[in-house]
TrEMBL record:
This is Hemagglutinin/amebocyte aggregation factor. Its main location: secreted. The lineage of its organism: Eukaryota, Metazoa, Spiralia, Lophotrochozoa, Mollusca. One of its GO terms (biological process) is collagen fibril organization. It comes from the Eukaryota. It comes from Plakobranchus ocellatus. One of its GO terms (cellular component) is extracellular space. InterPro entries: Dermatopontin (IPR026645). Residues 1-20 form the signal peptide.
Length: 217
């Protein structure tokens, strides 16, 4: 019975990640994972001024250049309540899952990420996007062709009770021995406007930090 329930949960979770449906309700936690060997491709989010929270939708796709990342780990939480988030996966790892919890008192979210790698493939020529969203407005971003998500950066406003987000994206290709450049930690962009005044409904699943995923057969 438990095996059947787990299989149903995983199927629905993967469908939500693949289809771009909202994976959480207001104020609720969520966990999404891309299917085995796939990586995060796009992020969409809408904010509610009444709930002071965001709903999230994600899409996954095959990794570029024939990569099939299956060596994975979950981070611990990478930000504190109301604090800056400045996160990059380990070198040559890319994002393939997201977990988040919301606090109604702080009106903020904390995030954890699933990072995966394919031996022999490297991230290179990485860039940090500008802020993708404005306060209280939708967020929509698709990783450019041939590129993958390798990190997230964010700032929080206690006045707006919202976050602005940037994404750290990299090209991902098989190592050829050529020197490739990669920023280790993305610098945060300046505050906009002169400063701040920033798959599935909750299922009970919380990934353990630094947990290595067992490759699926």
């Amino acid at each position: 019975m438990h095996t059947v329930a787990a299989a149903i949960f995983i199927s629905v979770l993967l469908f939500a990640a693949a289809s771009g449906q909202f994976v959480n309700d207001w104020d609720r936690p969520f966990t999404i994972q891309c299917r085995h060997g796939y990586v995060l491709k796009s992020v969409y989010s809408e904010h509610s001024n009444h709930k002071e929270d965001r709903r999230w939708a994600f899409r996954c796709s095959r990794a570029p250049n024939g990569a099939f990342p299956t060596r994975c780990y979950w981070t611990g939480y990478v930000n504190y309540w109301d604090a800056v988030m400045n996160f990059v996966c380990n070198r040559d790892y890319v994002i393939a899952g997201v977990h988040s919890v919301h606090d109604n008192h702080r009106e903020d979210r904390r995030f954890r990420f699933k990072c995966c790698s394919h031996p022999g493939f490297r991230t290179h020529s990485c860039t940090l996007t500008p802020y993708i969203n404005r306060w209280d407005l939708p967020l929509s971003y698709v990783a450019p062709s041939g590129q993958v998500f390798a990190g997230w950066a964010s700032v929080h406003s206690n006045h707006r009770e919202d976050r602005l987000f940037q994404f750290f994206v990299c090209f991902y290709a098989r190592w050829t021995g050529t020197l490739l450049s990669r920023l280790r930690t993305p610098p945060l962009a300046p505050w906009p406007d002169g400063g701040p005044d920033i798959i599935l409904l909750w299922t009970g699943y919380i990934p353990k930090p630094n947990q290595t995923s067992t490759p699926q057969k």
